[in-house]
Amino acid sequence: MNGTGSNWSEERVHHPPLRIVVGIATSGRPLILARLLERLRVQTRIADAVIVCGASPADVSGIESAHPGLRCITSDRGLTIQRNAILRAGAAFDLVVFLDDDFVPCPGYLQAVERTFMTRPDVVVGTGHVVADGIRGPGLAFEDALKTLQQDGQAEPTREIENVYSAYGCNMAIRIDVVRARGLEFDETLPLYGWLEDVDFSRRMAAYGRIVKIDAARGVHLGVKSSRQSGRRLGYSQVSNPLYLIRKGTCSSSKALKLMSRNVVANVAKTFRPEPYIDRAGRLKGNIRALLDLLAGRLSPKRVLSL
């Protein structure tokens, strides 16, 4: 933090062609959130605005005074609900860049995103290159993420983009005029952590343009384990959400069933020798509960709220 008290727009060195708002949905992780907000200050292209949506006033308490120009809002708890609140609050902008509160962007992240959307009007959703992802392990420390990005930045970044099936929800940029014109929003039937909400939203946006990965928009996903949903709830979602997206038509049967079966098999195989940072027994119980609900004809993503 530079300590000058200047707001986001005052730190911008020129008026950019696109108006970018960074949206952050958060719950119960104020220290992690504060580190991300610091990283946004060192972007080579400063955001025009930053909107933080908490699930309670405590999630955003004191943040606005510490970060002048920041807008804090609250909504009911749930990633899809909070992201929809951000979409409504940021409707006047050109791009909304959703970042998880534990995503650490490289300094040129927003600049790379802006360049892609400026030069390729057919792109409607973009996602960055995740250099390291702590979600696949015990999680990464913030300082380790900075070292990883520093080492990664020593190589010459490319300006390549490639078409992808969906954005990765920890960092995804969305062209807002498409959202406004089509009345799109995140599906609130996917509650809490909203597993696969990124796939669902991306595939609906794909009807109107390209979904791409932007190589120069690089970052590290810490994969912080605090404030995530319980193992049992996640296990239920690992079955219910893919099947829901198949019925909805926003995820192919092959991809959804692959995601579901891979997680169920992993939970079965590792239940008796689980990783210390994963509740395999809880996830397996959630898997079994969802399969029983499927057989009983009452499977729904929202049933996770009763677990």
TrEMBL record:
It comes from the Bacteria. Keywords: Glycosyltransferase, Transferase. Gene3D superfamilies: Spore Coat Polysaccharide Biosynthesis Protein SpsA, Chain A. Belongs to the glycosyltransferase 2 family. This is GT2 family glycosyltransferase. It comes from Bradyrhizobium algeriense.
